[in-house]
Write a structure and sequence with these properties.
single chain, 279 residues, 10 helices
Length: 279
């Protein structure tokens, strides 16, 4: 296997690698923008995720969030996809590398969600991410996190906190939530969740994001199956078919096995030398 990377794209890889390597997961909450992204200011929607891989639903949610906030809240809202070096409950998720995901996401957003940016975060909890964004970009005025319904359930789950209510109060002092329906979980399920006694005090900080039915069941987990590549953008489909990040090793006639994605990362490592591709 041989990979060919144009010089400008190789520079993207090098820049992104250095950024990812600089994100100290044990340090104070922090955020940074990817290479081609505009610095956040004013009113901002941030969509944290693993984007492993980016799907058509991710793109639809970003477009819907920008349209919804501009229509409902006024102002000229910026939208950002965000990847964290520390991802709650997804530390062992299937490859591709975070480095590949960021560079690929840059290409996808440039083609499908104009003027959308990418943030890199060093912490996994939303309250920490809000803190990092506010510290790194003090010109941000209104901050909205875009999440799926399943993620909201996680945000409200006390097992992720030492002091759930105090940390949630701190989160909602910094940001609000836009919640996209997932599967059969929509408006009525959101209302029921927020009506629970332990959640009622936070209901005013959460809004449902209207999303077309066809996107509600799409997931990155499903997209990691080759048979469902129609649910990803063409740039992602081409990358997956070329590098095979989610495929097992292929037995060879001599009894050895060939792992195409390992070959891809090794060759990329050689192009980035003396830097590494552990991200």
């Amino acid at each position: 296997m041989s990979i060919s990377i144009e010089p400008h794209l190789l520079q993207h890889y090098k820049h992104t690698y250095r950024l990812l390597a600089s994100m100290d997961t044990w340090g104070e909450p922090w955020a940074a923008v990817a290479l081609k992204s505009q610095l956040p200011y004013g009113d901002v929607v941030v969509f944290p995720g693993s984007f492993n891989p980016t799907t058509l639903a991710h793109l639809a949610m970003l477009r819907a969030a920008r349209a919804f906030t501009r229509r409902q809240e006024g102002g000229s809202w910026q939208v950002y996809a965000a990847l964290s070096r520390q991802i709650v409950d997804k530390e062992a998720v299937e490859r591709m590398t975070q480095l590949d995901r960021v560079v690929l996401l840059e290409r996808v957003l440039a083609q499908h969600v104009k003027h959308a940016g990418i943030l890199l975060l060093n912490r996994g909890l939303y309250v920490e991410q809000a803190q990092g964004i506010r510290v790194a970009f003090p010109q941000v005025r209104r901050l909205r996190f875009l999440v799926g319904f399943d993620k909201l359930v996680q945000i409200l789950d006390p097992r992720y906190y030492d002091e759930r209510d105090s940390e949630l109060r701190e989160l909602f002092a910094l940001a609000r939530l836009l919640v996209a329906p997932r599967g059969d979980d929509g408006a009525s399920e959101l209302s029921e969740l927020l009506a629970r006694e332990e959640n009622r005090r936070f209901a005013a900080f959460v809004r449902l994001l209207p999303l077309e039915e066809r996107y509600r069941a799409i997931s990155s987990t499903e997209a990691r199956e080759v048979a469902t590549l129609e649910i990803v953008p063409r740039e992602v489909r081409d990358f997956i078919q070329r590098t095979q990040p989610y495929e097992p090793s292929v037995p060879q006639a001599d009894g050895s096995e060939r792992d195409f994605y390992t070959e891809h990362t090794r060759e990329l490592r050689s192009l980035l030398a003396p830097e590494s591709v552990e991200a």
